[in-house]
Design a protein that fits this description.
alpha/beta, 6-stranded mixed β-sheet, binds adenosine-5'-diphosphate, binds magnesium ion
Length: about 240
């Protein structure tokens, strides 16, 4: 399972600088949560780590290897988005196996991987259903299943629960914690939900205007925020 390092990472869209020099050390198997207001660059940062967006300058290392120009499929990363974008005409089984079929894996191996992911996510009874026959929470689990079958070293989640209602979010939060314990992978999770951040994170990265405002454990940030911005975001009384 991979560690991750960002060194002076910058991103500009034309003349608009949206990531302004981010340094980060993420340990293997850590659950790291990025929080910060809308537009502060959380998604852009994830997309650069995934290789879906080029970096303007700086370095990204995954498992000690510089991946600045590496193809997204060669980074050992899988990303789960807020909109689950399942293929509507494919069953849960085929949705989950799609990336593996695309990669030309043998049928029995695909069946094994999909079966394992379905077990972990408690999707076994739903494998032959179509996405429209699933609830929102079930669809999001399928989207996570599509990531799991690829056995990534690092999972990236971009506000995966924000389309779900409050009750389901609580349930999925518990499932994600269990998933992290079971898979023992590195996870980077973007949210603007303080409760999610405080309960899931080993380490929280507070972002503000394309820069890191503070990094620490939930308790550190709560007890000792560097400034009012962090305090306000973490919900501590200062
Ligand atoms: P967040 O996920 O924290 O809400 P984003 O990473 O989506 O923030 O966006 C950060 C900033 O970068 C915003 O000002 C956004 O408008 C801008 N931005 C994101 N993608 C693009 C793009 N492809 N072209 C131009 N500006 C972009
Ligand atoms: Mg975003």
């Amino acid at each position: 399972m991979s560690s991750l390092k960002l060194k002076g990472v910058r991103k500009a869209f034309g003349t608009l600088e949206v990531i302004k020099g981010v340094d980060l050390d993420i340990n293997a198997r850590e659950f790291v949560v990025f929080v910060g207001p809308s537009g502060c660059g959380k998604s852009t940062l994830l997309r650069m780590i995934a290789g879906l967006e080029s970096i303007t300058s700086g370095d990204i290392e995954i498992g000690g290897k510089r991946v600045n120009d590496a193809d997204p499929s060669k980074r050992g990363i899988a990303m789960v988005f807020q909109s689950y974008a399942l293929y509507p005409h494919m069953t849960v089984r085929d949705n989950m196996g799609f990336a593996l079929r695309f990669a030309g894996k043998p049928k029995d191996e695909i069946a094994r991987q999909v079966g394992e992911a379905a077990r972990i996510l408690e999707l076994e009874p739903l494998l032959d259903r179509l996405p429209r026959e699933l609830s929102g929470g079930q669809r999001q689990r399928v989207a996570i299943g599509r990531a799991i079958v690829r056995h990534p070293e690092v999972f990236l989640f971009d506000e995966p629960l924000s389309n779900l209602d409050a009750e389901l979010r609580v349930h999925m939060r518990i499932e994600l914690a269990r998933l992290h314990r079971e898979l023992k992978t590195t996870m980077i999770y973007v949210t603007h939900d303080q409760v999610e951040a405080m309960t899931l994170a080993d380490k929280i990265v507070v972002l503000r205007g394309g820069e890191v405002a503070q990094v620490g454990s939930p308790l550190q940030l709560y007890d000792d925020p560097d400034n009012h911005f962090v305090a306000g975001f973490i919900g501590s009384p200062r």
